[in-house]
Amino acid sequence: MKQLITTLIIVALIAVGAYFLIQYTFNTTTPSAPTPEEQQPDDITNGMAQPLGNEQPKETAELKATSTTVEKNTIIGTSVNGHDITAYQYGTGDTELLFVAGIHGGYEWNSVLLAYALMDYLKSNPDVIPTNEQVTVIPVLNPDGLYTTVGTAGTFTASDVPASIDKQIAGRFNGNNVDLNRNFDCDWQASGTWQNKTVSGGSAPFSEPESKAFMDYVDAHSPTAVVVYYSAVGGVFASNCHNGILPETSTLTNLYANASGYKAYENFNFYKVTGDAVNWLAKNSIPAISVLLTNHQDIEWTKNKAGVDAVLSHYGK
């Protein structure tokens, strides 16, 4: 009996040993199915390889390489009352086209809305900017005046503008009560004229921080051409500071006028203007035009979009 029990124990041990030997052999020759976590290598997340170091995924690099517009904002100065004056740049080319609005602040608030419409257009339609161009928009050169009228120095809507014309007239001037479009260095006078009114041209050319900021920007960037928006006459006016109209200014004037449907003028002779911004640009041999909207309410986007497109096309390569 004792011998039988010993024999049974030996047989059982042999059977157990054989079972584990078979399991070991099977597991080393037939791997089990991987778990979902095991299916993803360490450098894969959501189906895209993680970049190594500063390397970018190919798709992102290609998008950046083919993009024709890059928007950046630059604060070029501060107004008398401490509001920022901002330039918005679109495109990466060497030919800079400069569009400016709001020199007369809240009095010509529709010129500011036109500039914002232009910025929206450039952001939504980057392909309209040729690769050799950079388009810069300064939507509000006189933020103090805009704030006086609409209660903000930034974005707004037409419904934010009060009906009172008195407040709009006050919005024409900066925080020092200076008409900025009488503060530039072409025929500057301390007392300027606006229609039948006498206005301050400041204590000297570029005495105001807003016009000085504009001068510094132009001096640093040397734009190829400048378009300045005002209201309200309904026309495109060439610039000139006693040296004759630059040939390229004549081209720019007629180009914008023909595309937009505004009338072209060689000069502004409705009344004497001193210290005008575009005439100062002409003095510095920079082609520049004034585009005066027809009234003080409408931005006339269809007309001005056509003018802008013509300018972008003209300077494109």
CATH architectural label of the largest domain: 3-Layer(aba) Sandwich
What structural category do the secondary elements indicate? alpha/beta
User: For the record, what is the CATH homologous superfamily label of the largest domain?
Assistant: Zn peptidases
Low-confidence segments, ≥5 residues, pLDDT <50? 4-68
CATH topology of the largest domain: Aminopeptidase
| Number of domains as seen in the coordinates | 2
* DSSP strand content: 15-25%
Shape: globular
| Main β sheet profile | 8 strands, mixed
How far apart lie the N and C ends?
108 Å
Number of helices: 10
Q: What's the average pLDDT?
A: 83
| Order of adjacent strands in the largest pleated sheet | 3-4-6-5-9-12-10-11
**How many strands?**
12
* SSE order, one letter for each helix or strand: HHEEHEEEHEHHEEHEEHEHEH
Top-tier CATH class of the largest domain: Alpha Beta
Q: How much helicity do the residues have?
A: 25-40%
User: What does the radius of gyration come to?
Assistant: 34 Å
Protein architecture, described:
This protein is an alpha/beta fold and 317 residues long. It has 10 helices and 12 strands. It folds into 2 domains: 2-50, no CATH class; 63-315, Aminopeptidase (3-Layer(aba) Sandwich), CATH 3.40.630.10. The strands form 3 sheets. It has an 8-stranded mixed sheet with strand order 3-4-6-5-9-12-10-11, sandwiched between helices. The chain is globular. The model is unreliable at 4-68 (pLDDT under 50).
